[in-house]
Sequence to fold (648 residues):
Amino acid sequence: MRLQDLKIASKLRLMVAVTMLGMLIQVAASLTALRGELMADRVAKVKGEVETAVSLVGHFEALELSGALTRADAQEAAIEALRALRYDGGEYFFVMRRDGVMLMHPINRKLEGKDNFGTLDKKGKPVFVALTDALRSPQGSGVVDYHWPKPGSEAAVPKISFIQEFKPWGWGVATGLYVDDVDAIFLDGALIYSGIVFAVVLVVLGVAVAVGRSIRRPLDELEADMSQLAEGDTGVSVRGTNIPNEIGALARRLTVFKKNAIERERLQAEHLAAQDAERERQEEERLHEVAVSAEVSDLVAAAARGDLGRRIDLSDKDGSLLTLCQGVNSLLDVLDGNIDGLQTVLSAVAEGDLTQRMRAAEAQGAFRRMADAVNELAEMLGETVSRIGQSSMTVRSAAEQIASGSDNLAERTETQAASIVETASSMQRLTDTVRQNAASAQQANELASTARNAADDGGKVVTNAITAMDAIETASLKMSEIIGVIDEIAFQTNLLALNAAVEAARAGDAGKGFAVVADEVRSLARRSGVASNEIKTLIAESSNQVEKGVAQVSNVGAALGQIVATVRRLADLVGEITIASEQQAVGLGQINTAVSHMDSMIQQNAALVEESSAAARSLATESDRLVDLVSVFRTNDKAPPPRPAAAA
Fold:
């Protein structure tokens, strides 16, 4: 069936239905996009928090690798740090193993040490089984959605958790975030959009129903009365004669037609009773009237079907029939003019032209009210479309600003990412240099240890030499004492020899032999004294030399002791430098890891900025499409909304 074949009410209902369907589709698309963006934001948030917690665990793993902590101590410290960690005012982290055993849960410690596979959410979903499956996946991470009550409440609300594996220890670090606010925002948006759509549909539907009823009801009543009258029922009560418009005029003309028909029947009866001769003529007149009535009935039926272009031929009409036919034609002219004006306005609206209006000043009664209602509807649609066009341009301008800002942010993020990459490369080279310095310091420490050992051995040798020199000095002193004894013996021998010579002289010739012996003894004692003096002098000089040697050896021992102390201090300093270099290498390794993690985060931020820029450009494109749709309409005293320029 073609559109022009539809009834007026059907056309109005079709227009309302199409308008409602378009608005519902747009609202559904907008709400779906809003919910998707909100959920993506929540997932990104829990991923970022878990990655931060994993980096904290990595710090303690680095302490384990550096030897500062044992693995047990490092894991215990990491557990306590995660147990105290909070974000968003109370959200916490928990730790699981790949076999599902809970290692740490800061809220419910009863869960620790068990696999908790039997724990279900309020809808029967095994939450910890799903988290374990995500941990065992090739990615080692995953997002799990479930329903869980908030603290202090028994009502279950939607919640998502993200778990990520820390491979060196086989841990899974996870956290959860309630997303019931997403449904609240979604429902608020749905209520707002639904209210707007419902209000617009009610207005359009009310206007359409009012216009349809104001046209259809009088026409249906008039059609029924004309049909009864066409069937010869002159007793019908014509309705709508009090309506002050074209339909009322048509009803009043139909009343005249009814009166004429009654009068005609009366005259026909009088003629039949009075003049049988004129029966044939009256019969012909009757047949002519019947033909006219049939013609009028066909015309009325065609008008009821929406065909208002037909008219009664007046060439063979005269008298009251001519007046009646002229009245019917005039009624149809008035009705056709108003319907044509209504069709012109609605067709223009369908084509986007909201400037067309019905000539209300030329109409009367119901047609005047219909023209006023249609003109008011067109005016309201024009104002609505103008406001939508202005809002579309505002949205487009804001979208372009957002897109421009996102592009600038993306450029700055890329620049920052490049700087972080260069920083990471420099930190890597610095880490390698510090590691080489640590290795060199280790070698220097080994050489210093060797020198210290050699200095200790030299000190021991000098100590032994000093001991030997002390022994030599002691022996020299003893020899001096022995030489003194020998000197005393020579003195005593010389004295005895002198006494013997004196006694031999007293003895005379009898003591000559004894005198010779005493003289020899005295000579021997004298030589012994001289020899002992020479030996004493040599021993004295030797003692002096020994004392000097002992002093020199003592000085050498003291100097060597200072050298040993200096070498020991140097070895200690080299050891401290070695330890500091190793710690510095470990610290630089941690800084390098942090810079690498920062580089990864900045790369992710750059990706998010690019996605935001793409979303802004998509919003600008959608606003351009909306402006294109609105630009189809033309409104009174206003230029069409400007079409957007091509997006850069």
